């Protein structure tokens, strides 16, 4: 009887462990577990949660802009629905590379627009805008956060110097999870 109980308990423990392993951890999001757009939107929302905009008045909405990728804009709009970041409501706007970007607090620029965005990004460097892109080398050249895929997982690199120049406070929790790069 005791032997049967031990065997049942071992089977139950093994089933629980298997179930826990099957549940994806958002911090270790695997590319196959969702679309790229949904993952990018989740990362953008997390970046907003771990960034402090010192120049933004309390209670002011946080404007999250997406340039060049309507799927990411749609996924982000869905992700931020009824969410708040430090008592701030969240707004999502789709913008073109020639749009009024100074109204953005967070700006995601898709790889498709990056080649033509050099002068624009140079003009945004000292503005309090958290710039994010999935373009290779973005964090080393002019941006603050770069999304990339490594070993089938979405990861990110952060340029803390660029964040500091923009007057943004990047949480140590965010920096601890990132690959740190410089200009």
Structure, described:
This protein has 183 residues and is α/β, with parallel strands linked by helices. It has a single domain (26-180), classed as Response regulator (Rossmann fold), CATH 3.40.50. The protein contains 8 helices and 10 strands. It has helices at residues 2-22, 36-49, 70-80, 111-114, 118-124, 138-141, 160-165, 172-177, and strands at residues 51-53, 62-67, 84-85, 88-95, 106-109, 130-133, 145-150, 153-158, 168-170, 179-180. An 8-stranded mixed beta sheet has the order 3-4-2-5-6-7-8-10. Strands 1-9 form a two-stranded antiparallel sheet. A hairpin with a 2-residue loop joins strand 7 (145-150) and strand 8. The model is unreliable at 1-34 (pLDDT under 50).
Which helices and strands occur, and which strands form pairs?
Elements: H1 2-22, H2 36-49, E1 51-53, E2 62-67, H3 70-80, E3 84-85, E4 88-95, E5 106-109, H4 111-114, H5 118-124, E6 130-133, H6 138-141, E7 145-150, E8 153-158, H7 160-165, E9 168-170, H8 172-177, E10 179-180
Parallel strand pairs: 2-4, 2-5, 5-6, 6-7, 8-10
Antiparallel strand pairs: 1-9, 3-4, 7-8
Global shape: globular
The low-pLDDT segments are: 1-34
Number of helices: 8
What is the SS-derived class? alpha/beta
Order of helices and strands: HHEEHEEEHHEHEEHEHE
CATH-assigned homologous superfamily = Response regulator
- The rounded distance between the terminal residues' Cα atoms is 67 Å
CATH class: Alpha Beta
Radius of gyration, whole Å: 20 Å
Number of individual domains = 1
What would you call the quaternary organization? single chain
How large a portion of the residues is in β-strands, by DSSP E?
A: 15-25%
User: Helical proportion?
Assistant: 25-40%
CATH architecture: 3-Layer(aba) Sandwich
By DSSP, the count of extended strands is 10
**Major sheet characteristics:** 8 strands, mixed
């Amino acid at each position: 009887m005791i032997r049967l109980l031990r065997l049942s308990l071992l089977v139950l423990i093994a089933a629980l462990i298997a179930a826990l392993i099957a549940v994806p951890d958002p911090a270790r999001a695997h590319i196959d577990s969702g679309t790229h757009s949904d993952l990018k939107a989740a990362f953008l929302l997390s970046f907003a949660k771990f960034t402090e905009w010192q120049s933004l008045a309390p209670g002011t909405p946080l404007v999250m802009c997406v340039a060049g990728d309507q799927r990411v804009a749609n996924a982000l709009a869905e992700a931020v629905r009824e969410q708040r970041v430090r008592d701030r409501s969240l707004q999502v706007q789709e913008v073109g590379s020639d749009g009024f970007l100074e109204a953005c607090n967070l700006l995601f620029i898709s790889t498709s627009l990056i080649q033509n965005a050099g002068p624009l990004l140079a003009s945004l460097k000292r503005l309090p805008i958290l710039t994010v892109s999935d373009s290779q080398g973005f964090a080393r050249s002019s941006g603050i956060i770069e999304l990339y895929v490594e070993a089938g997982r979405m990861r990110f690199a952060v340029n803390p110097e660029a964040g500091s120049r923009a007057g943004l406070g990047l949480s140590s929790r965010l920096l601890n999870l990132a690959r740190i790069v410089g200009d």
